[in-house]
Amino acid sequence: MDLLVLLETTLAGLGYELVDMERSGRGGLMRVFIDKPGGVNLDDCTLVSNHLSRVLTVENVPYERLEISSPGLDRPLKKERDFVRFAGQKVRVKLRVPLEGQRNFVGVLRETRAGAVVLQLDEGEGKTVTFDLANLDRARLVPVL
After folding, report:
1. What is the residue-level pLDDT of the chain in tens, covering all 145 positions?
2. Which candidate, 51, 65, 52, 86, places its Cα nearest to that of 23?
3. How far apart are CA 137 and CA 25, in angstroms?
4. Which among 98, 83, 47, 87 is positioned nearest to 68, based on CA atoms?
5. Nearest 5 degrees, angle CA 51-CA 86-CA 30?
6. Contact call for residues 40 and 34 (beta carbons, < 8 A)
7. DSSP state of 141
């Protein structure tokens, strides 16, 4: 079974969302970022860690150390549903291929439709850019302090 599918299915059954997963070069460290409505606390991380430890052992997934964490204030946006969920929020985006001669953008998520995201830029009155999610290298929320 695909590891991401296993994690998403297991976490969904517990009421959590898989935000991201990282593995070290040799596969020793597995870091899993989770979220749920209202946020994640230490008890959530402990519960998920205990449950995933058992699931990964049963599924013979090799790892030496498992870390469970919240995505933080600068949460990564990976899937289309993330962009829909955080519409109206300020984000920092890096594209794979430049758009209008630029790869890095900061602005407010306005809408997401049919695999494309509309971002209202901080610079300029009402200027927007639209990019395909397929061109996304990375995107993160900009924390409001």
Report:
1. 699 999 999 999 999 999 999 998 776 899 999 999 889 999 999 999 999 999 999 999 988 999 999 999 999 999 999 999 999 999 999 999 999 899 999 999 999 988 899 999 976 667 899 999 999 999 999 998 7
2. 65
3. 20
4. 47
5. 30
6. yes
7. E
Give the C-alpha separation, 79 to 85, whole Å.
10
Residue 113 C-beta-side C-alpha neighbours within 13 Å: 4
DSSP assignment string, 26-95: TS-EEEEEEE-TT---HHHHHHHHHHHHHHHHHTT---SEEEEE---TT-B--SHHHHHHTTTSEEEEEE
Predicted confidence at residue 123, as pLDDT, reads 67
SS3 label, residue 18: strand
Distance between CA atoms of 19 and 132, rounded to whole angstroms? 20
